[in-house]
Amino acid sequence: MTVTDQRIDSGKPFDWGRTSKEYARYRDIYPEEFYRKIADRGLCVKG
């Protein structure tokens, strides 16, 4: 998905699909306990 907004970066397109992998890689904001609770419930663990 490409997003543009004249108020942000002079309207240059922002491709969230391309950026989201990098964001997830470098912006780990949740504590380990959060992920453990998800995994303990069997959620988001396949693959």
Give the end-to-end Cα distance, rounded to a whole number of Å: 24 Å
Number of helices: 2
**Could you give the count of β-strands?**
2
Question: What fraction of residues sit in β-strands?
Answer: 5-15%
Based on CA atoms alone, the radius of gyration comes out at 16 Å
Label the structural class: mainly alpha
Q: Any overview of this molecule?
A:
The protein has 47 residues and is mainly alpha-helical. The chain contains two helices and two strands. A two-stranded antiparallel sheet has the order 1-2. It is elongated and about 45 Å long. The two termini are 24 Å apart. The mean pLDDT is 80.
Characterize this entry briefly.
With 47 residues, the chain is mainly α. It has helices spanning 16-26, 32-40; strands at 2-3, 14-15. Strands 1-2 form a two-stranded antiparallel sheet.
Secondary structure topology:
Elements: E1 2-3, E2 14-15, H1 16-26, H2 32-40
Antiparallel strand pairs: 1-2
Considering the chains and any ligands shown, give keywords for the structure:
47 residues; mainly alpha; two-stranded antiparallel ribbon
